[in-house]
Design goal:
77 residues, mainly alpha, elongated
C-alpha cells in the first residue's frame, strides 16, 4: 500500500491535552481522514446509483396506488 506524508500543525496545548487523555493523535488523524475518504466514496456511489434508478425506474400511473390498495382490501374480505 503506497502512502504519502501529510503534515499538520496544531497548537502545542491541543496535542498535549489529547495525549493527556490517552488519545493517539497520529492514529486519530489517520482514522478521521480514512473515514472522510470513505464518506466521499459512498456519496459518489449513491449519486451514481440514484442516476441509474432515475433512468430505469418509471413512475406508476396516477391513481395506481389507490386502486391497488382498494383491490387488496376487497380481496381480503
Amino acid at each position: 500500500m503506497e502512502s504519502v506524508v501529510i503534515s499538520v500543525r496544531v497548537k502545542k496545548e491541543t496535542k498535549a491535552k489529547l495525549e493527556e487523555e490517552g488519545i493517539d493523535v497520529e492514529r486519530s488523524v489517520k482514522e478521521f481522514l480514512a473515514q472522510k475518504a470513505l464518506q466521499i466514496e459512498l456519496r459518489e456511489k449513491i449519486k451514481r446509483l440514484k442516476a441509474i434508478v432515475e433512468k430505469s425506474v418509471k413512475a406508476s400511473r396516477k391513481g395506481f396506488a389507490v386502486k391497488s390498495i382498494r383491490e387488496d382490501r376487497y380481496a381480503a374480505h
